[in-house]
Amino acid sequence: MQHPTTQTPPRTSTDQARAALWTGILGAAKHIGRREPRTNAKRPPVVAFKPGAGETPVYFIGAGLFEFRIAQLMRCEHPVYAIEIPWPSQWHDAAAQNDVDASPTLQELVAPYVAALRDHAGGSPCVIMGYSFHGSMAFEAAHQLAALGSKVAMVMLLDAPAQYPAPHHVARQKLREVWARSPQRVSSGRRPPSIVARLAGSGAILQWTLFWTWSNLKGQFLHWVLRDAGKLTTKLDALGRPMHWRLVERVYANSLRSYGLRPLDCRGAIFRADRAEDCPGGVVDHSLGWSGLFGDGLEIVQVTGDHMSMMREPPHDRNLADEICGLLERFCHEPKQHELRAAAAAAAAER
Q: What is the model's pTM?
């Protein structure tokens, strides 16, 4: 009697994505258990987070659990991929030693992500997406891809500010806005805010400044006195060593030290959360600093939840996924409508 042979079912793209995510989780677990890290050279740089039959693929810069969650909640037909590159060990060591000169610039930080994306997508049009600081990386990646002749259809920024100025610089600018005499208000005949209103706004700004100053001093105390490196992330370097969040933040901050924003010739979208961390008072910039940087226009989408919950907690994560899909469908529908109108106009002219 012959027994039927069992075959291992092929791994789906979702299985491969989970395996890639588990690489980082296991790397962090080995670090906690004081076991030797395992190099992650075999981890694919591009993983499929969601299959789809849509013509325009979407690429997340950064392949984390929350990006994976948003991709799974997206109900549109666009395939969604994520790019995660093990950072060179030199970058890890430079962050640990706070060696600014040895830290990568944003262009250097983004270059391996661009190489992986270009190898995967070729010259086909794509959408690039980034959450928080990964938004800055997505913006620079689009610049580098355009310089290489690739077509970036849109850059989607998930609650990602264009710049990260120091809190005291933000507070100074906001105080100037509160006390400035607005030419628009004078020309329109509207009465300026009262002294009481301005004092109240100034008090809120100063309170915000003190909070962030205290938070920063507390973090420095924990780091230097208690040797607390912050929470451990699943971000691995090329040697398989996981990085603490404080070191990741340091790489991000140092990468922006000489970076200058310049306009990008494509369309942009900013998904803006309810930002409790924004400085109160003065003029609110709903574009988070991205206005005027996209040649084909910028769309601002207000989403529910704050900077964290928009990605991590229901119903905010589903709302965000629905807004992303809605914008993608509108964006992809517009060229077709334009082609139909042009064809109708040509037919009418022939008559």
A: 0.83
Domain that holds residue 174: 166-224
Sign of torsion over alpha carbons 99, 100, 101, 105: positive
* 302 and 334 share one domain: yes
Give dist(CA 47, CA 57) in Å, integer.
Answer: 12
C-alpha dist (Å) from residue 302 to 64, 134, 280, 295: 23, 19, 18, 21
In a domain, 7, yes or no: no
- Joined tokens for residue 222: 């924990």
Our CA dihedral for 228, 234, 235, 239, rounded to 10 degrees, sits at 90
Q: What is the pLDDT of residue 338?
A: 43
pLDDT at 263: 97
Residue 2 lies in a domain: no
Query: Is the CB of residue 178 less than 8 Å from the CB of residue 198?
Result: yes
Q: Is residue 5 part of a domain?
A: no
Q: Which of 4, 90, 13, 2 lies closest to 46, judged by CA?
A: 13
What is the domain count for the chain?
2
Task: Please indicate, yes or no, whether residues 198 and 235 belong to a single structural domain of this protein.
Answer: no
Closest CA to 46 of 7, 20, 72: 20
Q: Which residues of the chain have pLDDT under 70?
A: 1-13, 30-42, 181-190, 220, 222-229, 333-351
The residues, ordered by sequence, that sit 6+ positions from 76 with a Cβ below 8 Å of its Cβ are 52, 54, 325, 328, 329
Asked if the structure places residue 157 within a domain, the reply is: yes
Q: In this structure, are 124 and 77 located in the same domain?
A: yes
Give 83's DSSP letter.
Answer: E
DSSP 191: P
